[in-house]
C-alpha cells in the first residue's frame, strides 16, 4: 500500500541451489558503462534493459535433482579475467539457471572481495545441501591428467557387474577396470572413432552400441578385449542420430533411437535379440577340400556383406512412436515412453501407442525424473 494505492510486485521464482551454476564471464565494457554504488549486485538480462535490482532467496523449493554445482570454473577463469578487470571498474559474475531454456544473469560487484563473498556463500550452501541429501558417492576411477582437454570424455558407463567401465571420448572408445583385483585402472583405447558421444553395453546379447559423429554403430561386445588396430567392422544401424536411450518397458529391454526434425520426431523402439548363426548354411562350400583358398575368399565376402547388412543386426524393431514436434530426450517407465519435447513432456502408452497426457513445459523439463512423472503430475505455479 502506497499513498492509498495498492501495488503488486511480480517476482520470478527463486533458482534452486541444485540448478544454480556460477562462473566468471569475459567482461564487455559496453554492457555496463557506469559503476554501481550499491552493495546489492545489479543484474542485466535481455529482458531487463533498465538495470533493475534483484534480491533472490538463498534457498528455494524445487525438485531435488542433483546437477553440477562445481564452481571450479571460477578458480580456473580467475587468472584469465584478472588482466581484463584491471582496467575496468566492475567485476562481473554470471549466474546460470540450468535447464531448458537456460537463464543467464550477469551481476556486477563493486570490488573483488564482494564478488568472492557471493561465490563463497553460494558454494558453502550448495555443499551443505549436498551433505544433507546425498544421492551419489563420488569415487575417482582414474587420474584427471590421463585425459587432456583436447580429448574430451562425453559419456561414461559401467558393465560386467561394475567391474569394468567404458568411456566415450572425442577420439574413440576406451575401456578400463574398476575392481580391487586390477591394480592398473587406467583406461586403454579399443575403438578408434571420431566424436564418440554415447556408448552402451548390452550384455544380454553381447552387443556394444556406439554413437559416433551422429551415426549409431553396432559391435560385438568382445571388442573391449581387443586393440584399435584389430577392431572389427561395425554394423551401421542409423545415421543422423542425436542420441539414443537404453531401458526397460513392458518387461522388455528396449533401445530407443530417434529421428528428429523441427516439425516432427519419430522414435523407433528396438529389442535386443540373440541371433543364432547356422554353421551349415553353406554346405556346398565344404564338399571339396581342394578349394580351401576359394572358400576363404567367399567367406570373407560373405563376412563383409553380413557386417554391413541391417538384416543381421542384433536389434529387432518393435514399433515407431510419432510426436508432432522436436524431441529432446527419451525415457522409459514400466508401461510408457516419456518424450521431452519443445511442447512439454509427452507420455505414450506402449501397449496402445496412444498419448496419455502432456506435462506443460517448465524450466525443469530436462531434469524431470521418470519416477516423479509417474507418481505425480508436476504443474507450473
UniProtKB/TrEMBL annotation:
Keyword list (alphabetical) reads: Guanine-nucleotide releasing factor, Phosphoprotein
* Superkingdom as given in the UniProt entry: Eukaryota
Query: InterPro entries in the record, alphabetically?
Result: CNH_dom (IPR001180), PH-like_dom_sf (IPR011993), PH_5 (IPR041675), Rho-type_GEFs (IPR052233)
Q: Where do the CNH domain residues begin and end?
A: 162-359
Q: Which residues form the Pleckstrin homology domain?
A: 4-126
A GO molecular-function annotation? guanyl-nucleotide exchange factor activity
Concerning Pfam families, the annotation shows: CNH (PF00780), PH_5 (PF15405)
Q: Which PANTHER family match?
A: RHO1 GDP-GTP EXCHANGE PROTEIN 1-RELATED, RHO1 GUANINE NUCLEOTIDE EXCHANGE FACTOR TUS1
- Protein name as annotated: CNH domain-containing protein
Q: Which organism is it from?
A: Rhizopus microsporus
Q: What is the lineage of its organism?
A: Eukaryota, Fungi, Fungi incertae sedis, Mucoromycota, Mucoromycotina
Amino acid at each position: 500500500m502506497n499513498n492509498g494505492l495498492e501495488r503488486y510486485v511480480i517476482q520470478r521464482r527463486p533458482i534452486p541451489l541444485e540448478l544454480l551454476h556460477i562462473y566468471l564471464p569475459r567482461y564487455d565494457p559496453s554492457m555496463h558503462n557506469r559503476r554501481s554504488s550499491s552493495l546489492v549486485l545489479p543484474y542485466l538480462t535481455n529482458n531487463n534493459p533498465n538495470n533493475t535490482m534483484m534480491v533472490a532467496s538463498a534457498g528455494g523449493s524445487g525438485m531435488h535433482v542433483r546437477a553440477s554445482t562445481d564452481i571450479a570454473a571460477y578458480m580456473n577463469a580467475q587468472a584469465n579475467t584478472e588482466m581484463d578487470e584491471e582496467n575496468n571498474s566492475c567485476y562481473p559474475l554470471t549466474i546460470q539457471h540450468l535447464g531448458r531454456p537456460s537463464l543467464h544473469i550477469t551481476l556486477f560487484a563493486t570490488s573483488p572481495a564482494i564478488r568472492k563473498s557471493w561465490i563463497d556463500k553460494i558454494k558453502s550452501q550448495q555443499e551443505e545441501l549436498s551433505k544433507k541429501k546425498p544421492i551419489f558417492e563420488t569415487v575417482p576411477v582414474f587420474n584427471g591428467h590421463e585425459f587432456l582437454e583436447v580429448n574430451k570424455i562425453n559419456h561414461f558407463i559401467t558393465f560386467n557387474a561394475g567391474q569394468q567401465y567404458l568411456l566415450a571420448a572425442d577420439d574413440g572408445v576406451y575401456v578400463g577396470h574398476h575392481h580391487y583385483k586390477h591394480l592398473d585402472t587406467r583406461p586403454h583405447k579399443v575403438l578408434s572413432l571420431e566424436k564418440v558421444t554415447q556408448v552402451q553395453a548390452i550384455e544380454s546379447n553381447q552387443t556394444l552400441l556406439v554413437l559416433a559423429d551422429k551415426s549409431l554403430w553396432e559391435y560385438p561386445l568382445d571388442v573391449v578385449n581387443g586393440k584399435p588396430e584389430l577392431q572389427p567392422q561395425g554394423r551401421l544401424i542409423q545415421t543422423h542420430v542425436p542420441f539414443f536411450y537404453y531401458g526397460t518397458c513392458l518387461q522388455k529391454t528396449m533401445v530407443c533411437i530417434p529421428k528428429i526434425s523441427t516439425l516432427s520426431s519419430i522414435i523407433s523402439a528396438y529389442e535386443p535379440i540373440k541371433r543364432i548363426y547356422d554353421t551349415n548354411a553353406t554346405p556346398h562350400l565344404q564338399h571339396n577340400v581342394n578349394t580351401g583358398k576359394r572358400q576363404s575368399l567367399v567367406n570373407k565376402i560373405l563376412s563383409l556383406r553380413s557386417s554391413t547388412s541391417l538384416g543381421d543386426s542384433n536389434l529387432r524393431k518393435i514399433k515407431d512412436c510419432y510426436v508432432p514436434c522436436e524431441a529432446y530426450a527419451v525415457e522409459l517407465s514400466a508401461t510408457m515412453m516419456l518424450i521431452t519435447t519443445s511442447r512439454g513432456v509427452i507420455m505414450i502408452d506402449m501397449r496402445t501407442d496412444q498419448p496419455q497426457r502432456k506435462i506443460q513445459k517448465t524450466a525443469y523439463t530436462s531434469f524431470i525424473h521418470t519416477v516423479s512423472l509417474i507418481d505425480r503430475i508436476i504443474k507450473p505455479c
